[in-house]
Amino acid sequence: MKKVIGALIMVTALSACEDANKAIDKAQSAANTAVDSIQEQMESIDLSKLDLEQFGDAAKSAEALVKSVEEALELDFSNPKALNEVTEHIASAYNCMVDATSESSAEALMNKMMDRIQSEETKSLIERSIEKGKALGECVM
Hints:
It contains 5 helices and no strands. It is an all-alpha fold.
């Protein structure tokens, strides 16, 4: 009798766990759908139509960031000195862009540029530079 009651308790407990797992899966699916929808809306924003001059000093920071990424596109990766300089330029420009606007604005601009870059080596350099820029203190141009 005790074995039967114990078995019934185990079956009931396992059934409850399965229901909980299904509920969690549904919640994750709903959250993923919401995030995908938001990302699609964000991607539809055309940053090239923004009037950067309306942001005052932030426009200068955005221009500096774009120019530093252009340096990375033209970089000779066999030149360690140039590699270090470009890394520093991107890190500094990214840091200043964050200071002038916000991290989300800086990331949005970077994502827009990164989407157009084909070279994985260049993308990797830029990503490392951004991480370095996040660790910097104040903006120094």
